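quick one, two chains, predict together pls
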Amino acid sequence: MALQKTLYVGPFIHCRTLTTLDVCTSAVIGVDEYGKIAFVERDVDQSQLAVREGWEDAKVVSIDGSGWFFPGFIDTHIHASQYPNAGIFGKSTLLDWLNTYTFPLESSFSDLKKASRIYKRIVTRTLSHGTTTACYFATIHVPATNLLADICHDKGQRAFVGRVCMDSHLSPDFYRDESPTVSHEKAMACIDHVRSIDPTFDLISPIITPRFAPSCSAESLNLLGKLHGETGVPIQTHLCENPPEIRLVKELFPQSKHYTDVYDSAGLLTSKTILAHCVHLTPEERDLIKLRDAKISHCPASNAALTSGCAPVKAMLREGMTIGLGTDVSGGYTPSILAECREALFTSRHLCITNDTSGLRGKSDETKLSVEEALFLATRGGAKVVGLEDRIGGFEVGMDWDAQLIRLDVVSEGEDETLVNGDVNGGEEATFAEDVGLVDVFGHESWDDRVNKWVYGGDDRNTKAVWVKGRLVHRRHGVSV
Amino acid sequence: MALQKTLYVGPFIHCRTLTTLDVCTSAVIGVDEYGKIAFVERDVDQSQLAVREGWEDAKVVSIDGSGWFFPGFIDTHIHASQYPNAGIFGKSTLLDWLNTYTFPLESSFSDLKKASRIYKRIVTRTLSHGTTTACYFATIHVPATNLLADICHDKGQRAFVGRVCMDSHLSPDFYRDESPTVSHEKAMACIDHVRSIDPTFDLISPIITPRFAPSCSAESLNLLGKLHGETGVPIQTHLCENPPEIRLVKELFPQSKHYTDVYDSAGLLTSKTILAHCVHLTPEERDLIKLRDAKISHCPASNAALTSGCAPVKAMLREGMTIGLGTDVSGGYTPSILAECREALFTSRHLCITNDTSGLRGKSDETKLSVEEALFLATRGGAKVVGLEDRIGGFEVGMDWDAQLIRLDVVSEGEDETLVNGDVNGGEEATFAEDVGLVDVFGHESWDDRVNKWVYGGDDRNTKAVWVKGRLVHRRHGVSV
């Protein structure tokens, strides 16, 4: 379905490198009828927009007020089915959390009506947070997993949708595949379904999803590895999240050199594998992952919540590993990648606090992430993790228009008009006549300051509109684009 | 000014003890014309509200939908003047952060117009986050500090407003009191001003505010200690935030036993002293603080951001210390105490990660805070820190009605009606016709679950209305109370 050619006019920001932003304060980006970026014109005098040949009838979307276009976020690890449990985890850690909170909820997705309600909500929510691409774990149920693929397709979110394979060990009786063969067959059924709605996997891709080694038999892992070899369909799983889990894998797979080797031996460790967490990798495991060019999803909110640990992200980046961010709902409490950026920044600071025995806190650029680095992980890093670095994560000619319109509102100079407090006596109209969100810009802020304020203080209220492949997939109430 | 007697009808929740909530699912709380709780009736059949004698003409405020009344939050440490820098701190740590970001901004509060714009905004913001009591650091300027007191008084926020005293050492030339005597005189001038607008310090209290030892001369500290002795006005300052600061104090005050002793020797360590941070106290210092019954403001967001460290809150609670939460804007990025609860929960988990060398992560109830404990710190704990535990922090007869109305919206059963996605072709009306906030309740959640979802996922959108001493001081657009 062809789109109307569109000119996006105004400032844009994206990541130039891991450590630097490219802030273009006045630009025109032309997006063609296929949702691809046809040209990027920088330093444009917006009062004298020259009309390009062939773009005379293009729609124009201009930034209104203090804002910018930013690449859509990429969530490289999220359990769509666990969304109703977001924020509910008590003082649990990984293995008891699975049994107490997770498996009971996931098993209820045999109810398609329930699945529909939850999946629609989480896809709408992630879109509203600016997530244009998500790697979803569903449940073991084929119909519900296929429904999630349908919902992403309908709502226009780019997604990797995985039926969870789990057939042994830690899998409870009430929630497991009947056998390795059934795991394999059901994985194929979900691949076939996605092929039926999106034959080239252009927007929606299936993804082979062994839950993690402790809930899979060696036979099932081998069958899934074979399936990957035959189809080229990507893989997602969990790796080295917490110490008891790692010890358990050692017991369950005594013949393996280490946890990473369990996947590698089964043909599941390739350049198309996304490994969630990787908090406690040994140097040997890191070397193997690099050798295979497998990818890492860093999930700091979840790792803090379940006290799994602090993944040494900067050290892994220095070693050349490919890393993106994952919200890991509902180990993570939030489906927002912007909030996850904050968590990544704070986790890296906690690592700095922990590592520092010299008393010279904060000298350590070796552990602290910068805002720029966090945003890189959330966009270009994530794009590389999902193998789409040529199509998404930045604004380059030939890439898809997966973007969000960010706006911060400037506090008025005079009386605080947009913030009128209610008064018990006067009965005036109440605070925040328009809900401008939490970020207050006073006018003195540089572009860098504004980006910092957005990352630390912003939320979905600053994401005014979201596009995937040029299609408008979300806009806030009252925003016209 | 007398208020209309009001009956607050619906569920309420407050902290019973440090570790338990009191959830009353159906109650009537009567608040008299002085804003005090006259009675609390539990387990009320709301369809047959009996009319009490003398309350026939009372106004009725009922919970509409899925919500509850909750005590207002108490922010025991916030720099109102630093609000424009919220989220802007880069990779700095305390001492360079002060010079790079803080002193230049604070010094500009000689401009009263600027001060007015910022102070109005931050007071309105904190109210909208449910903060009914705040302990503010202002700047060294008397007129701007007095203006902050006026603004709190007008807007109805209970506040402790302190002019910052700083006359030596780390204080830059462009931003310091001229002498210890001037520090003392200006402190008195601000006390006098508050007395002129609120003679009994009923809503607004002055607070003696030596910035911290590294920016104060011994003479100035002594004069302020004397002022406290003469007036009984409370004190706020910083203590043991990061190691370089502690080393600096050791150099500057070689005659003192330790950092805490610097304040104690000056008569500044009493039961009316609020000590922000206390990340790195020695056992001797903790003993002295307990002996003096001084209070602690825990500021986890700031301590993580500036890599100051993780205060061992549970250990200090076990020792019987009195602790509340502080946002410490702008070391902290957020003026929300709800967000600060989250940060306290995560900081305690990071401490658990750090301390645990056994690999048995998460067994450690000795460091992990619970949601109940975080909420206690935010309400009853804070109340005790500011010396008002008999008046605020819970819903008991005789206490003031300092409260917030919390509401979480339930996701509809059918199609997700409240979340209609915009479509590029159809041009439908966009997402979130009413902005219900980020917390999604699906209906299966217990009261505990709802509280957990609120703490981890909620924001100002869930705080529908706020009262201080029975006066409505904030309500969200469209909320009628």
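The first helix of chain B runs from residue 94 to 107.
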